[in-house]
Amino acid sequence: MCGRYAFFQEHEELERLLGRLEPLDYPRRYNISPTQLGLVALQDGKRHLAVMPWGLQPAWATKGGAMINARWESAAEKPYFRSAWKSRRCAVPASGWFEWKEEGGAKQPYFARLHDRAPMLFAGLWEEGSGYAILTKDAEQGLREVHDRMPVILGEEEVGAWLDVESPRDALPGLVRDWAESLEVYPVDRRVGRPAFDVPEACEAIRT
Fold first, then answer.
1. CB-based contact 42:126 (threshold 8 Å)
2. How far apart are CA 121 and CA 17, in angstroms?
3. Is 2 a catalytic residue?
4. The CATH number fitting domain 5-203, selected from 3.30.70.100, 3.40.50.1820, 3.90.1680.10, 3.40.1390.10
5. Which residue ranges make up each domain of the chain?
6. Once rounded to an integer, what is the mean pLDDT over residues 32-51?
7. What is the pLDDT averaged over residues 111-122?
8. Which CA distances in Å does 200 have to 8, 98, 111, 192, 193?
9. What does DSSP say about strands 69-71 and 46-53: parallel, antiparallel, or unpaired?
10. Can 128 be counted among the known catalytic residues?
């Protein structure tokens, strides 16, 4: 997964996935970039929303920058993510995400979203005093020609088990399911490569 996504859904739409939540004053975002503030859903006692930077760095990691992505296949075992996997999981609301593909000597951005334009939830991890990372997996059919990785998308049936850190570990792999038939991917304006291009047009299809 490349380092950009969007979230511009109404709060009521998000509640259909997460249940009743106290709304936060978070603006519609069409081009969220690393280090910028993103909306996340947490479950510590009760489910609630929070805003934190996109980028996770454990307190002990003094070298290098924060990580925006973690591989689903190995995050539970990696020292960098192991503690968060065990006790600090989150769900990241999104309307879709961007990937870039080499075409004609230039990189063309694409936007991936659900066919019905409903919000989705990415599986994530977070750290106190830091931020969050989005978990990724091998891309599914139809997405691989654009990029070889994609976010781990949680359905309404999976989000509870993911957020509940008491869930049996051997049950977690079953949360990852195939979304290929539910997704559409299309080219968008190349200006999306600039973080300042945070406007509705960033997520609209263009002709190539």
1. yes
2. 8
3. yes
4. 3.90.1680.10
5. 5-203
6. 95
7. 96
8. 9, 14, 12, 11, 14
9. unpaired
10. no
